[in-house]
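Anyone opening a protein record will find just a pair of labelled lines. A complete record is shown below as an example:
=====
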Amino acid sequence: GDGRIVIRAAQVFGAKSVGVELDRGLAEDARGRVRELKLEDKVTIIQGDLLQTDLKPATVITLYLLVSANAMLRPILEKTLRPGTRVVAHDMRVPGWESDREEAVRIGNGTHFVYLYRIPQAFQRP
């Protein structure tokens, strides 16, 4: 997307963050925004396929994808992520996982839902 989640993580929490965007134009736009905000030391935008990206170093993964994309990503996350890694999904659940926490967030006139999962508990619950 436009990089807003990884940019915000850097601005608010000082997080080193990496965004992955398939669309070249959106990735370039996000990189431009990172440069404008002088966050190059904190934020990296990769133009590529999330399904082909090395996610092992991540301690937190944020997803804003369709349920079908979350379903395709799920086996990769289960195989790759280390215990303790958190996965935060915006509006769309990860099918087959149980969330640790769910929050409804009002933004303007709309309500968004955020689901927090912890690895491996999300997919190892009875």
